[in-house]
Amino acid sequence: MCYRISNLLLAFYGLLLFAILITPQKAKAQEWSEPVYITTPYDMIYISQSDMIIDKNGVLHIVWVQRFGSTTNSFLVYIKSINQGRDWTEPITLTLGIGYLIYNPILALYSDNTVLLSYFSLKTEVEQSRIFLKKLEGDIWGDEIAVNGSHDYRYWLRTHCLAIDSNDKAYILWPKADLSCTLIVTYFNNQFSTIVQGPTDNVKRFTTGKAIFDKNDVLHYSGFRGNTIGYSYYSSGQWLPFNLVDDSYKYHDFTLDKESIPYFVLNSVIDGGSTMFGNYYRNRWYFEKIASGYSESHSLFIEQNGTKHIAGSWGNSLKYYRNNNDGWTDTLLESRYSIYNKLLAKDSLLYLLSNIRINNERTYLEIRKMAIENQVGIQEQPQLVDKKINIYPNPARETVNINFFSPEGQATIKIIDLQGKQIFSTTVKNSNMGIFDFQWNRMCAKGNAATTGIYFVVIQAGEQVFAEKVVLF
After folding, report:
1. Does pTM top 0.85 for this prediction?
2. Whole-number Å distance between alpha carbons of 165 and 219
3. Average pLDDT over the chain, rounded to whole?
4. How many CB atoms lie under 10 A from the CB of residue 32?
5. Is the pLDDT score of 371 beyond 90?
6. Residue 471: how many CB atoms within 10 A of its CB?
7. Which one of 49, 205, 365, 444 is separated from 28 by 20 to 30 angstroms, measured CA to CA?
8. Omega before 393 cis (within 30°)?
9. Strand, helix or coil at 429?
């Protein structure tokens, strides 16, 4: 009898152990690593601005502007890491500003892995103050390149934008000196284009904030003016209407998800101040409150699985917020104010670069990282090049923007389904120097909305006929 009981107990415990082993285990929560100091809290230096980029080989590149106390002297410093931020090279001084100040360093990456740097130098003689470029090819930094026309600049704003499209054309944007508009110049094959003037009507006059190209080479752009943040996009020489967020403060950040939908984190001045997160969808803003109180130095990153990450300064604290599509959680990272934060991902690692302030004369740079799903960064997705038709967003939920170039005076646009049936047709006229712009609202010729699926946009302009696929969902 005892022998039979022992066998029964053994069988019971065996089944219990098997059940434990096959029961799905809850994944361990994502956690940030301990920070690695790039400059230490004990260094008697003040870093005013910085930026970071990760190249195709996973090398981390960082630049910062370092000041000499309260003097008008500054210098631009570069450093890199080849082992995911564990060790760093000795700092290199790229530009020494004796008697003038350097502002707003921005890093961007060409398709051949060349790093492009832009920055603004505020010199004693105003006419010599302008935006400059430098290129890092291999391990060698090139000479300073003065950006054409950038002396026409609103100096006290000290801000500009830099972005590179899939054809390796760099776009530099900055506010015109009289704040009447944004100026744009491109840099391609070591040549600058003529300056393009942005919208000049009053509701579209904004200080430059950030610029990002999506996978269809549409330039998404943000700026601010007073208690209003503006967002627009620019394609083939055309600005689309600015969309405004009223009752918001200038501190904000935005990024694009994998479908090129813009998401923002910003401050609202309503109810004594709060931090809001939202997107621009179907020609409307949608925001939710994620925290009370004003916040600054925001950075926003969205994984391809939709997980949202936000870092910023709330009062004298550096905090991190995450939403796995089931609500926001927050983590205190530092009990100190961070002047600057940047979230950036490469493969399965998310990095956070922060510039922590000790006092008005001392700051230090630190970097931490977190494991995330292995992914190709949203800004690194394959780009569509040499397209005769620019369609965005694509895939699209509602309005489809169709943009193309032709010297003809008019063109016919047809929408064809997969069965070859024409569901929509219209004739459009040349709007601006050969550029055609048309917005299709998914309505068919019979008055019903096109259903979810794959369609073809077919354009005939004179003897030219070209087509492009669009996905509706």
Report:
1. no
2. 8
3. 82
4. 16
5. yes
6. 15
7. 365
8. yes
9. strand
Q: Which residues contact 257 (CB under 8 A, 6 or more apart)?
A: 263, 279, 302, 306, 378
pLDDT surpassing 70 at residue 382: no
Across residues 424-431, what is the average pLDDT?
84
| CA gap 158, 181 in Å, rounded | 15
Comparing CA positions, the residue from 268, 260, 325 lying closest to residue 298 is 268
pLDDT in tens, 285-312: 888 999 988 888 999 999 988 899 999 9
Residue 129 tokens read as 């103050």
Concatenated DSSP letters of 259-315: T--EEEEEEE-GGG-EEEEEEEETTEEEEEEEEES-EEEEEEEE-TT--EEEEEEET
DSSP letters spanning 45-109: -EEEEEEEEE-TT--EEEEEEEE-TTSS-EEEEEEEESSTTSS-PPPEEEEEESSSEEEEEEEEE
Token output for 204 = 């579209």
- Distance of alpha carbon 29 from alpha carbon 50, whole angstroms: 30
The whole-number pLDDT of residue 234 equals 78
Q: Which domains are seen in the chain, by residue range?
A: 36-380 (2.120.10.10), 389-472 (2.60.40.1930)
Amino acid at 255: T
- Nearest to residue 237, comparing CAs of 162, 167, 186? 186
Give one word for 306, left, alpha or beta, with left for phi > 0 and alpha for psi -120 to 50: left
- The residue assigned the tokens 């003689």 is 125
Residue with tokens 């506010």: 175
Q: For residue range 199-220, what is the model confidence (pLDDT) as tens digits? A: 655 555 667 789 999 888 888 9
The answer to whether residue 24 scores a pLDDT higher than 70 is: no
Pull the structure tokens for residue 405: 């170039």
Distances (CA, A) of 299 to 339, 340, 431: 12, 9, 38
